[in-house]
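Job type: complex structure
Entries:
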Amino acid sequence: MNRAATTAAVAVTLAAALTLTACGGSSGSQASADSKQTLSVWAMGTEGEKLADVAKVYEKANPNITVKVTPIGWDVAHQKLVAAAAAGKLPDVMQMGGSYMTEFADMGALEPVDTKTFQKKDFFPAGWQQGEYKGETYGVPWYVDTRVLFYRTDLAQKAGVDKAPATMAELQQAAEKYQEKADTKWGLSIQPGGLDTVQSFYQFLYSAGGEIVSKDGKAVANSPAAVKALENYGSYFKKGLSEKSVRPGYDVTKDFNNGSVPMFFGGPWIMGLIDENYPDLKGKWAVANVPADETSASMAGGSALTISADSEHKAAAEEFIKYLTDAKGQADWYKRTKDLPANVNAWETGELATDPNMQIWKTQMESAKVSPAQPKWTEITSKIDSAIEKVVQGKASAQSALDAAQGDIEGLVAK
Amino acid sequence: MSTTTPTPARSGAVKAPGGAPDGPGGRRRKRSMGKQNLAGWLFSTPFLVLFGVFMLFPIVATLLMSFTDFGQRHVRRPLEAEFVGFDNYVKLFGDEQFLKALFNTAYFVVVGVPLTIGLGLLVAILLNNGIDRARTFFRVGFYAPVVTTIVAVAIVWRFVLDPSDGLIAGLGAELGFTAPDFLGSETWAMPSLIAMAVWRNLGTVMVLMIAGLQAIPAEVREAARLDGANAWQELRRITVPLLRPTLLYTTVITTIGYLNVFEEPFVMTQGGPSDATLTVSLDMYKQGFSFFNMGYASAMAYVLFVVIMAITVLQLRLMKDNTK
C-alpha cells in the first residue's frame, strides 16, 4: 500500500512535469486571411500602448479580424518571449529588436518573411538587415532608431563653438571649449561602464571604421581601428571631459537642461522628452550628425514585426503587418509615436520631408550600421562593456583591454 | 513548548496497545493501517504535488542541466542539448568573473554576518533593558526595513549615497569633508551594499534576539548580580551563553541569506563598477537569464548549493550547545 501510494505520488509529479514541458509544438491548420479570426499581438513599451489605437482602426476596416494587443514592458519582454517560445505559445505577431530576432530565428521560433510581399528596397537597409539571419529575413522593419549628437546652441555661442563639430577632433575641442569658456561641468556625456555601455561606444567604433564582429562572423574586437576608437573614448575621461561614474537610471536630459552636460549622443525619443519636460529649453539646442572619423556612422536600432512559426493565422498576420509598414501606415505611426518610420517612402511627405532636424536623422540612418546577426550578441557586447570600463577607470590600455575581450568573443561567435 | 509536545506522542502510544487486543486477527489491523496510510498520503497530496512541481522537478532538472550545454537554441528542442560531463564545472573554476563573484560573496558574508548579528544583539539588549519609553516606536523603526520592498529601499539609499546631492555628500559638505562616490567606486561599492543589507536585516535578528532574551530566567541574572557581576560580565557569562540557541539560529539563517545575496547588488549596482559587487547569485542570473547559458548557470547554482551546505553544517557543528 505504502509503495503504491509512493508510486502514485511519483506518477502525479511526473505527469505534472510532463505537461509543463511537453506542451507546444502543435502546428495546426492555417486560417485564410478573410476568415473570421483573432490575431494576438505583443508589442513593447510605448509601442505596446499606442498600437491598440491603430488596431481599432484596422478592425473597423477589416470586420472579420479582431486584433488583441498585449503591451509588454521592455524589462520583462525577453523573459516572457523565451518562456512563450519554450511552451510553443508565442503570439501571432511580435515586435522584436534586432538581437531578439537573431536569437529567436536561431531557435526556430520565427516564420521567414515573404520577400515578394515586403520588399527590401522600401526600407532603410539598416532596418532590413536587422532581420536577416542565415540567408532568410525574419522581420519587417517597423520603426528605426539611431543616435545623433545633441548639443546646446546657446552655450556653444558662449564657448565660441560656431558650428556643430563635424569631426571627432572637433568634438573633443568643442567639449574642452564648453568646459573652459561656458563653464559647463562636463564636456560630453558618454557612459563610463555597466550594461550596454557599448551603445555609447558604437558611435566612436563605427565612425573609426571598426567593428566587434565582422560580416563574415569573425571576432575583430582588437583591430587597430577599434583600439583607436577606444583610446579616443577613454581620453574624454582622462581629460575630465566626461563623468567617470554614472548611477544606474541616470537621466541625461536633466543635466542637459541645467547646463552641466552640453553634449550627448541620444535617440529620437529624446527630442520628445526635452520638448515635454523642459519647454524653456526650446531653441537652445540642436541635433547634428555623429562627428566623422573615417566616416560618420552611428548604430542602427529599432524594431521589426515578426510572425511566430507556430501561428495559425499567418495570412492575416501578414496583412496586418503590411498595413503597419506601408508608407501610409508608417506616416500615421510617426504622428502617433514620433518613432522614425522604417519605410523610406514615408519620409517623402509632410514634416518628415521638410523638418531639418528630421533630415539629420534620415542621413544618419542611411549610413547607420547594424549589429551582426549573432545569437550570443548580448554576451559578446558585455565583454566590450567591461573592456570600456577598464579603460575608463584607467586600469588597462585600450589595446590590452580589447585583446582580452577579443579572446572571450572568439569563443562566443557562432560557427 | 517542551511541556506540550510529548502529550500527543504519549496518547498515541497509549492508543496503539489499546487497539491491538480488540482486533481478532492481524488482517483487519493491517487493512486499517493501510487505510490510515492512504488517508495520510491523500492529505499530503496538495503539498506533494506543489513540492514536486515547483521544487523537486526544478531541482532535479537543474542538476541534469548542469551537465549539459543547454542554451538559448535548446529552448524549443530541450532534448537536443548535449551532455558535456563536468565541463561546466571545470570551466567555472577557470572563469575569472565567477571567481571574483565567489570572492565578493565571501566578502559580503564575512563582513556582513558578524555585523548584522552583533548589531542585532546590541539593539535587542538596549530595547530589552535600557530604553523604556517609546519602546514600540524603536521596535517598529528597526523592523520597518525588513518589511519594506527592496525597490523603495533602493530609491532611498541611492539618494542617501548619491555623490553630488545625496544625504551623506550633503552632510560632508557641511562638515568639510568630501564623501566618496559610494556606488561608483570599486572600494566603496561593496561596503555600501553591506551597510544597506545590515540595516535591512537587523530587524529580523532583533526580533528573534528579544524573544531569546525574554526567555532567560530572571533568577539567573539576579544570582549573577548578587555574586557581584558587572554589566559586561553579565553579558558575557550569562546573556550570550543562554542566548546560544537563538544566536545559532540567527547566524545560520543570516549566513544562508547573505550567501544568496542578489537583491541589493541587482537593484543598486547591477554588479558594477568593474564587477566589484557581482555576487554568485547575480552572476548566475546574468548567465542564465541575460545570456541564457542555462547549463552553465545551473552548474553555478550547484556550486553555491554545496558551499551553503558545507558552511551550514560547519556552523551547526561548531556552535552546537555542548552543555546538554
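Summary: The first strand of chain A starts at residue 37 and ends at 44. The two ends of chain A are 55 Å apart (CA to CA).
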